[in-house]
Design brief:
The chain is α+β, with helices and mostly antiparallel strands. The chain has 4 helices and 14 strands. It has one domain.
Length: 214
């Protein structure tokens, strides 16, 4: 029908009004579907990197701070200036994701999450707006693990099929009310900014209860 929109078409239909409850429903996890266009981070063989989607959603950003909250197991990428403390370049001069070698940070995350350092781990995230800035938030507890094994002829075999946490086996996802709260974070409270360095004598973190204005 010319000149109509989906909204007006719906209004023109006779749709019965019923009482509906979300009780008992689970929001199916995004990890169960193809998500090549979703922001993600990867930990692999002592390196950390984002995917191209992260860069495309914030094309003007060249540097980020990496914040980790060990209590709620969340990682945040916060855009910052080049001269900000612990700023990390997340892309190459050709605007591709930069694979950042960070053995100590990698080891700390493996220990925090009880992950196997020989596996590749991928974590989906969301771009959120808080105050006057944008942040990427990643829940490390919702990860995809890609096992790496040694074959009988001593060759490394990389699995293309991910494995998920065992507790996901009997559920599609989180209940609706819990899902709505999942990304609600008290940003900068309890987070630390990590300096990505491979020098053991200079590794440092900084509490971030008040880091605005850097």
């Amino acid at each position: 029908m010319e000149g109509t929109t989906p909204e007006t078409q719906i209004q023109a239909q006779e749709i019965p009004e019923v009482s509906f409850s979300y009780d008992g429903f689970q929001v199916v996890r995004g990890e169960f579907f193809s998500h090549i266009y979703e922001p993600s981070i990867t930990f692999n063989l002592g390196k950390f990197y984002v995917n191209m989607t992260c860069l495309k959603k914030l094309p003007e950003v060249e540097y980020v701070q990496i914040l980790v909250n060990p209590d709620n197991k969340k990682l945040v990428l916060r855009p910052c200036n080049e001269d900000a403390k612990d700023a990390t370049a997340w892309k190459t001069p050709k605007n591709n994701p930069k694979q950042i070698t960070c053995r100590l940070f990698f080891a700390m995350v493996m220990k925090l999450m009880d992950w196997n350092p020989d596996y590749r781990y991928k974590v989906l995230g969301k771009l959120i707006s808080t105050g006057d800035e944008y942040l990427y938030v990643f829940d490390l507890s919702c990860r995809e693990a890609y096992p790496r094994t040694i074959t009988e002829d001593n060759k490394v075999k990389n699995s293309k099929l991910p494995s998920y946490p065992e507790e996901w086996g009997n559920q599609f996802g989180l209940p609706v009310d819990e899902h709505q709260k999942q990304l609600q974070i008290n940003i900068f409270n309890g987070y630390s900014v990590f300096s990505l360095t491979d020098n053991p004598s200079s590794i440092k973190t900084e509490d971030n209860n008040n880091v605005k204005g850097q």
